[in-house]
Amino acid sequence: MTRNLLPILGLLAVLSPFTVQAIELDVAPVYEDRSFVPEQYKWDMTLFYASWDEWEADLKKVTELYDKMVGFKGQLGDSPEKLIEFLALSDESGILLEKTWGYAAKIEDLDTRDNFVKGKYNKLVQTYMSLYAKLSWVEPELLQIPEETMTDWIDENSALEPHRFGLLDSYRTAKYTLDETGEKILSLHGSVRGTPRDIYNSITNSDGESPEVILSNGKKVNVSAGYYSNALNTLRDPKDRKNIQLARMEQFEDRENTFASIYNGVIQQGWALAQSRGYDSTLEMKLNRNDIPTEVVFKLIESARSGAEELQRYHRLRQSFLGLKDYGWSDMFVPLLPSEKHYSYDKIIPWIVDSVAPLGEEYQTKTAEQFKAGLVDVYETPGKRSGAYNSGNYSVGSFILLNYQGGLEDVFTTAHEMGHSMHTRLAIEYQPYPTSDYTIFVAEVASTLNEKLLLNKLLSEINDPKDRIAFIEQQIDQIRGTYFLQTMMADFEIQAHKLVESGQGLTAERLTALWKEVVSSYFGDIIPEDDPYMTSWARIPHLYNSPFYVYQYATCYASSSYLMKQMEKDPAVVGKYLELLKSGGNDHPMNQLKKAGVDLTDPEILQAVVEEFSRLVDLLEQEYTKYLDETRVG
């Protein structure tokens, strides 16, 4: 099947600057079944395989390649030629395994209720774990080769150059690598370690139906994950927002003991693995893989906590401007000024493409290409995984999943994921397979910088005071959500893990109490103790799916903020930034950021975000007060 042509609007955006004010705003369509969604708004899975039979054939081929690699056992240190031959098989099987994984995982995400697909995905997981176990001897055997010898081999053989970083980094982490028997035992438990995550995803995405709520206008709504987020951003009646929040959170409150058991399982398995490898904590294990000092996380928490007064000031202003006697989590997202605007997905494409012009022609042109039909799955459908993400496959491309509702938040989410998509594409195009996969630590730099570029475009072209206030709010909420909230969750994670690592058990009651303590450290008394948000530890997928992931949103936001400021002063910084994206995973992420001019051990970079937040809150107060004065005069 040939790929569909680039949408005309996206192409026009590349050819000439696009003015936002010329756009009409439309309501996002609602689809009751995936079959009703037009093809241009869905992933084209034939880019992977035309059928499951083809998928099965490649999965079989992967197994055959792994069996060939097993034949090299005991020979990797014989000569560089043997190592080159083995690594060529490793690359070939890795690319193929990534392709089979991408196909099964993406199809499952499109309808998590499909048991046939779930069976295929589970088969893939089991195959992966068995293959991993077959090669558990590799790293211990490689470490038997003296580091000096390995360095000489790489220097003298260009075929080993793409593997330089990975091979030599193994010696840095050698003390955490077990012998062949130990590594095999750990590999056999790999699928079990993912069980808590899988249970959580099944409960939250597949099992049960979304509750219904009748709004104050008599309209009955289904409170899906996507609608929940959109409702808190759009509904003007505080009672409606509260009822939506209550309905959404009831699903978690009613099963809080189940979620506590699942989260305890997530932490226990991580701690067991950390102890098996000789780490002092799960945090140390998670960060050491990419050579990130733990002090970065603790400095981040210290910086965010020190800026909490500014966060609280912002919400007190909101409460005053909204005229609310009672204020809580359900009131924190609705714009200060009412807006019925909905942004058509097709019409925001040119905005995003045009906004990245400061990053150069290559970046802008390729951004437009990434909006091709087949690469973005746009709309929410029954059973589809909630949220949004980008996922790349080395031999296929970079794919974005959205649940597009049409609100302003969806516009920026699309820009955010396109930042990831471009990062992935550039890494794939400029790096060989072994170093094409960038780390999570740098991942959110490109996404958050994309959002900043879009905001700059909107503020530069729109003079309507109501819209300007909305865009300033958007930027404030970006810092609030990406810097303060993600750091707050990391704060909670660290303390929850410490409880388990010190031998204490986790119960729903203990987790709620801990969550309340952490939340109050950031929000003070802004969020009441009886707010349904106080059980949100059960609702946040990242805590279950990716422990010690969320803090990187905050460090990346600080990095992108600093890079944006430097780009405005020195155009040469754009080149350094693009080199960061193109470098994939060819170095430790702290080093990659330093090459781009960002040193996260410098507390001033983290503090600069708090200062930016304070400045924007001042600006919002000025703009809104001015708007009120003009309204009274009018």
Task: Give an account of the 3D structure.
Helices cover about 65% and strands about 5% of the residues. By secondary structure, the chain is mainly alpha-helical. Strands 3-5-4 form a three-stranded mixed β-sheet. A two-stranded antiparallel sheet has the order 1-2. A hairpin with a 5-residue loop joins strand 1 and strand 2 (about 220). The N and C termini lie far apart (about 60 Å).
Helix content range? 55-70%
Q: How many H/I helical runs?
A: 27
**How large a portion of the residues is in β-strands, by DSSP E?**
under 5%
How many strands?
A: 5
Helix/strand-derived category reads mainly alpha
What is the typical, i.e. mean, pLDDT? 90
Separation, N- and C-terminal Cα atoms:
59 Å
Label this structure with key terms.
634 residues; mainly alpha; three-stranded mixed β-sheet; 5 strands; 63% helix; 3% strand
Quick structural overview:
The protein has 634 residues and is mostly helical. Helix content is 63%, strand content 3%.
Outline the secondary-structure elements.
Elements: H1 8-15, H2 52-70, H3 80-110, H4 115-134, H5 138-142, H6 147-156, H7 164-172, H8 180-188, H9 190-193, H10 195-205, E1 212-214, E2 220-222, H11 225-234, H12 238-253, H13 256-277, H14 282-288, H15 295-306, H16 308-322, H17 345-355, H18 361-370, E3 376-377, E4 389-393, E5 397-401, H19 408-430, H20 440-461, H21 465-501, H22 508-523, H23 541-545, H24 551-569, H25 572-582, H26 589-595, H27 603-633
Parallel strand pairs: 3-5
Antiparallel strand pairs: 1-2, 4-5
Helix pairs in contact: 1-17, 1-18, 2-3, 2-4, 3-4, 4-8, 6-7, 10-13, 11-12, 13-21, 15-21, 15-27, 16-27, 17-18, 17-20, 19-20, 20-21, 20-24, 21-22, 21-24, 21-27, 24-27
